[in-house]
Amino acid sequence: MLMIPMAEAQPNLGKNLMNKPAVRLKQTTCPYCGVGCGIDVNVDGQTLTQVNGSSDHPANFGRLCVKGSSVLETNDVSGRLLQPMIGDSVVSWDEAINHVASGFQDVIEKHGPQAVALYVSGQLLTEDYYVANKLMKGYIGSANIDTNSRLCMSSAVAGYKRAFGSDTVPCNYQDLEDTDLLVLVGSNAAWTHPVLFQRMERAKQINPDMKVVVIDPRQSATSELADLHIAIKPGTDVALLNGVVNYLAEQGLLDKNYIEQHTEGFSATLESCQAWTAERVAQYCDIPLEQVSTYYQWFANSPTAITFYCMGVNQSSQGTDKCNAIINCHLASGKVGKVGSGPFSITGQPNAMGGREVGGLANMLAAHMDIENPKHRGNVQTFWRSPRIADKAGAKAVDMFEKVRNGEIKAIWVMATNPAVSLPNGNAIAEALAACPLVVVSDCNLNTDTTEWANVRLPATGWSEKDGTVTNSERRISRQRGIMPPSGEAKHDWQIICEVAQAMGFASGFRFTSPAEIFDEHARLSGYENYGSRDFDISGLAGMSEGEYDRLRPVQWPVNAQYPQGCSRMFEDGRFFTKSGKAQFVGVTAKAPVQITSEEYPLVLNSGRVRDQWHTMTRTGKAAKLTAHIAEPFVAVHPNDAERFSLTDGQVAKVTSAFGQVLLKVKLDSGQRKGELFAPMHWNKQFASQANINKLYAPVVDPISGQPELKHAAVTIEPYAADFYGIAFSRSMIMSDSEYWTKAPNQAGFQMSFAGQGEISDWLDWCQQHSVSQGEWIRVENSSEKSFRVMCYKAQQLEFVCYIQATPFAEDTSWLSEMFMLQQFDREEIKALVAGTPTPEVAKGRQICSCFQVGEKQIIEAIVDYGDDTVEKLGERLKCGTNCGSCKTDLSGLIRANCPAVAV
Ligand SMILES: Nc1nc2c(c(=O)[nH]1)N[C@H]1C(S)=C(S)[C@@H](COP(=O)(O)OP(=O)(O)OC[C@H]3O[C@@H](n4cnc5c(=O)[nH]c(N)nc54)[C@H](O)[C@@H]3O)O[C@H]1N2
Ligand SMILES: Nc1nc2c(c(=O)[nH]1)N[C@H]1C(S)=C(S)[C@@H](COP(=O)(O)OP(=O)(O)OC[C@H]3O[C@@H](n4cnc5c(=O)[nH]c(N)nc54)[C@H](O)[C@@H]3O)O[C@H]1N2
Ligand code: SF4
Ligand SMILES: [Mo]
Fold it and tell me: Required co-factor (predicted)?
């Protein structure tokens, strides 16, 4: 087996002979994205002192992005839920467990097992996920367990299953470096899978003939790397992809041998593709013909190709069809199961894959077995020796919450996800949680938009405390190790689930005392009655001792008698897990999104991620270093649309759909298509007054996968008629009651942006009321401009500063934040603040490089004044981009914008 010690070493032994505790090195996995980077953590006594990328982890070979390298800054106990609570009262664990168990039992007795539900997450570890699924499907006997992966990966799963007969990701990360053509569809990997993106960038540097195509309606940090960026009309991917198959046929470039020997259903699929000539595609997708032709020529003639796809594909009302359209291109050209080739769906969350393995979705069983298959149901029940087994699919996420809202589900247990923010039709989700008689939430944080509705809050251990395994996008299982003891009274998710199960009378199936025991059962089940019939088989990892489990090295499944060291690429033999052993072509037809625009809602709202925030910000929202990149929620608007809707840059706008309304700051962006807006998904009630964009999305789902259409809402936008705009920095918390506010941590305290209506008679008084700062207060007023500057300082330190004006801040205000962080604050600085002009030392501009806090102005100066025309030269001068590299595409964008002679 694969057990070369890597978990623990003692690098400083020699230096630590003097009674000082040794600095230990622990190896674990990043808690964020599905790249699954290995992290080395230095532990000094009870303190985690430093993190580095694990040089021997095959996902990252030492690299980390800015989120991974800042993980310690988000790991303190502030804001943590540290004790179980019923309502607002702290209770003992016994009381909490019994309350949950009897609450669930009561509902089951009165209304049956379909009246309870578990809503779990791709951020659970495999062991947590395994027992949650076992409790629901094998003991409660309902399949009402679904996960936030429904919002994320379910279309990819359904697409793979239709084509390959199994949920198998064929490729590996090395393939990204070994390919001649990389097509990124609906992925902003530069910001969302940064370490993989760095591997792509490097591969392209080494092999200048490698081509990169980005298919995304908007310009992004990722499209910076593209040789060809196809800004397609959103939702039209199927037409573009069907055109590839048609082109291959037209040009006689099909891989007829492969089609013949290893696939079925080609002729019907070709028929559904034949109408999609390049001309028709160009028209339908609203893109130039030569872009379509170039993509088709490159794909057809390239010896290898990877199509790398993410949420722009999956989060669609025809997400599953989009996935099959991608797979069809690869089958038709024989580009599957070969070095540097394949349809590569990338997972978002750290353990989305682990969740798929244990059957965490409502329509799956454990170990990649099918709920509709009686033999599989028999296998799982016999193996578990469980009293029952769910025999039909349960409610998928969006339906589940609809059933909570209409009272069919009366008890729900939410774990490691924040549905009040992340599910579509947010107002209805709040109604559902408010109406539900029993809402249990297991979380690490005390206050989230979801815990607000909890009857019971259960404190879960977080990263560095929790202990188990995760599986990344390339099927690689890694240990996420418990390094620290649990904070407060927090327990591991698997422990909490097992205790509730035991209290419900299901003791026999849940007597686990360690994650190693659970993993062992999971590994054994994967091999049970398998005989090569199922892709997911890690029976080779069964039977490990606790020590062997702890030392487990990253390994790609399957791990069994055939692949004792794991398997890096699937389907090399052209055999698939379908009945016939052949891959299935699935003919798909292009369909318009369901949430279509109208006269009343004439704009499309696209949504997604920003570089330095993670989901609902419960962790990354704590780190000043991470919030500095983009401190405020925004809506990106094409300048023509801004004109059409009378909007100016930096102004607060009201974005409205048939389902709700939000207030966001306008960001002019000529990289948007006209008629389309983009807004980040991250901000919620903890950080902003009205910025949760999921209030705007309809609960529309893909009919096959049940994945919601989260990239395409129909909205309208109008200026919010603010009478004042303010920006404030304070050492201590600031309160705001204005209609628009957002807040963020700052390296020296807090910052807040606000806007509102009405007349404030005295801004000095207002500032004093809304902060607890003490010291010498100064107020400066320019009554003709209706602008005010209020500040408070004490002992050479600025305690508080607030700028208020009647119009949006057109100028960059990031210097105020720099000013606020100065250690020495004297007359020069006060004068600068009074005058509203930055001193040279703080005029850095908007933060671009989070690792070394390098600002936009500094970078532009280096480009313009010193002629730094490459990312490397900027790095030499300013250090920007030389640590994690996450900002390199921003740097090349700035070079391009400020140095037109340079093609980056
Ligand atoms: N920084 C950061 N990284 C993350 C996360 C995070 O929260 N923050 N979350 C992780 C998770 S869980 C996930 S799922 C991944 C998501 O990773 P990605 O999918 O890369 O990220 P998104 O920003 O959601 O969306 C990707 C792109 O899809 C495009 N798109 C929208 N509609 C269409 C369309 O119709 N067709 C095409 N072709 N493209 C379209 C959008 O314009 C956007 O640029 O990121 C992971 N990594
Ligand atoms: N409009 C729009 N909506 C989207 C998306 C989009 O692109 N656009 N993307 C969707 C996608 S792909 C995803 S993955 C979802 C993500 O959305 P969510 O899953 O709702 O977001 P998170 O902030 O990751 O929520 C995780 C919660 O679990 C807690 N937590 C963290 N670790 C643990 C743990 O170990 N145990 C327990 N018990 N709790 C823990 C955190 O504090 C947090 O409250 O959002 C979806 N929603
Ligand atoms: S790419 Fe960044 S966020 Fe993703 S696993 Fe690696 S370090 Fe973590
Ligand atoms: Mo996701």
Answer: Mo-bis(molybdopterin guanine dinucleotide); [4Fe-4S] cluster
Same domain, yes or no: 272 and 195? yes
Q: What is the pLDDT of residue 831?
A: 87
Output the CA–CA distances (angstroms, integers) from residue 571 to 447, 562, 583, 671, 778, in the order listed: 46, 14, 10, 39, 71
Q: Do 851 and 834 belong to one domain?
A: no
Q: Is the pLDDT of residue 827 over 90?
A: no
Ligand 1 close to Cβ of residue 608 (< 6 A) = yes
Whether the CB of 398 sits within 6 Å of ligand 2: no
Place of tokens 């990169």: 212
Residues 303 and 189 grouped into a single domain:
yes
Residues 781 and 872 in one domain: no
Residues 814 and 856 in one domain: no
**What DSSP character marks residue 404?**
H
Q: Is the CB of 419 under 6 A from ligand 1?
A: no
User: At which of 656, 689, 719 does a domain end?
Assistant: 719
Give the DSSP per-residue string, 827-864.
HHHHHHHHHT---GGG---SEEETTTTEEHHHHHHHHH
29 vs 813, more confident: 29
Q: How confident is the model at residue 365 (pLDDT cuts 50, 70, 90)?
A: very high
Residue 195 CB less than 6 A away from ligand 3:
yes
Question: Residue 865: is its pLDDT beyond 70?
Answer: yes
Minimum CA distance residue for ligand 2 atom 15: 422
Find the 186 Cα to ligand 1 centroid distance in Å.
7
- 659 is in which domain, residue-wise? 603-719
What share of the chain in percent tops pLDDT 90?
Answer: 86
Tell me if 588 CB under 6 Å of ligand 2: no
Mean pLDDT of 468-473: 98
Using the predicted structure, report yes or no on whether residue 23 has a pLDDT greater than 80.
yes
Let me know if residue 58 belongs to a domain: no
279 and 169 belong to one structural domain: yes
pLDDT at 904 exceeding the cut of 70: no
Q: Is the CB of 470 under 6 A from ligand 3?
A: no
CATH number of the domain that residue 861 is part of: 1.10.10.1100
Candidate of 119, 151, 620 to mutate for ligand 2, largest count of ligand atoms within 8 Å of Cβ: 151
214 close to 225: Cβ distance less than 8 angstroms: yes
Domain count, the chain: 4
pLDDT band at 900 (very low <50, low <70, confident <90, very high): low
Q: How does pLDDT run across 425-448, given as a tens digit for each residue?
A: 999 999 999 999 999 999 999 999
Dihedral over alpha carbons 697, 698, 701, 707 (to 10 degrees): 30
How many whole angstroms separate alpha carbon 615 and alpha carbon 152? 12
Find the CATH number of the domain harbouring 704: 2.40.40.20
pLDDT at 786 over 70: yes
Ligand approaching nearest to the C-alpha of 349: 1
